[in-house]
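Hi C.,

You asked whether I'd gotten around to modeling the 604-residue construct. I have! Everything is below, sequence then structure, no commentary in between.
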Amino acid sequence: MTQEFKFFAARYPDAPGVYLMKNGRGRIIYVGKAKRLRRRLASYFQKNSGHTRKTRALVAQVASVEVLLTGTEKEALLLESGLIKKHRPRYNVVLKDDKQYVLFKLDKGSAYPRLSITRRVVRDGSVYFGPFTSAAAARTTWKLLGKVFPLRKCTDHVFNNRVRPCLYHDIHQCFAPCVKDVDRDMYMDQVRRVEMLLSGKSGELVASLERQMAQASGALEFERAAECRDQIRAVRKTVEGQVAVIHDNRDRDIAGLAVTDKGLGLGLLFVRQGRLLDQKQFFWPGLALEEGPEVVRSFLMQFYGVGRFIPSVIISPFEVDDDSLCQVLAERRGGPVRVAQPRSTQEKKLLDIARSVARQARERKDTISERLQKALRLPEPPERIECVDASHLGGRDMRVGQVVFEGGHRVAEDSRLYAFDELDGTGDDYAALAAWARRRVESGPPWPDLVLLDGGKGQLKAVERALSECVDDACWQLAAIAKGETRRAGELEDMIFRPGRKNPLNLRPGGAEMLFLQKVRDAAHRFVLGRQRRARKKAVLSSELTSLPGIGPKTARILWDRFESIEAMTGAGPGEIEALPGIGKKRAARIHASLQGLGKPESD
């Protein structure tokens, strides 16, 4: 049971920074930022403070609080956002759907601009249009525009190196400026038409095209008139479904909140040049409307990340009293950003539409953590999973590799390799895994929600017994994934064992839960084998290195710390070697001479 946390205000500075609240297992359950840390933390632990239900549940779980100081509140906001994305704390508003949406990019800085599809905004002088939540719909529009506005399709590299026209030119969907002498004024006229269409000026574009069609028809230039006719049809088809909702040419996003039967929904409208372009829903289970201001602030910081298209106006259902947020968004956009409540009647109507979209938000499907909780019969969803695999080479070089997955994603920097030289020559996987369990307890938090072992009931029992000897309360959740009769990793015959059960769990072969566990197991297997082979290769090279005159084990270690490979050592000059600690000029010359002879055939 978690011991009640005792808060002492004097322990915390009254300065800007980030605070990390951890539970009894050392896991970060909440990340927050504050302009004055001491005052903000004190507000959590005051009695009768009128906290929301979520905050009361959070405070009941807190076992320790760690703070990270920053120079300004803006720096604290950036640090908070990065830590939320990395640790995905249980009580923070975490944006699960944080993918970049599709945009149209018109690279106007090029001599012959092209219209392409991208997911990132780069400040290179290009013009961007969007976003579109449906990549399929965006590609359909792109293909339609490509048929009637024959701009080039190839990248700059292909454009600069092409020697003959491509297929698009043969089917009359590209002018082929890469190899042909294309009139640039005529080409840029097509570019302006595309830009007018995507900027929402379809009415002006259609009127212009109709005038040009009439002029061409009157001059008996029927081919040019047919081209204008086709472009008019394409424009009208492209703008179908884009409703004019506000009478100005500004881009704005509108965020609306609404309570549903199971949580809090957020609807986001994308309005471009006064037309409703697209919409998106988000959902957080268990939250109430009273958490709304925090939800909106955290959402805006996570959603409008670096590389995202950010409009100049963001309409919020609450007043966002945070100047640092607007500063960060303005820097990411490269221009001013206003985050405010609706001012005009039209903006209020848009907010009502966003609320209607939010009411339809639902949690679409269980996360992989929630699926694993049900399949493995765990007390709570396993957010942090540590998978271990024991490996040796003919009984030698006993190693245990550990990989970590959080929120269904690999955390590569948390991978660890444990060496057990005392077990060399035994080839005892059970003893190695038991030794790993003891070492893992000694290393401390963050503790795993689930430990997955590459093995069967024997490996599971060995780790369970070791943990019972060094942990008072055997609260670690364990599981083992064993290969089937074919003994091949990834086969559908893989079996999952849990402590206290004689038979494996009945997981559907090919199901999401089994495939994920196989993925985690395979990652641990590849990690330990890769590190083992690398260490063996380095040992062989070190042995070859120490056989050279003037290079012993200590010098070899110094060389390996400075240079990553034998090739780097042999390519180093005497001056670089002399700069190493404890090596003088004369010795550096001898070492350099020895290294130059490394790998060369001996003379007769």
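If it helps when you're writing up: The chain has a mean pLDDT of 84.

Thanks,
B.
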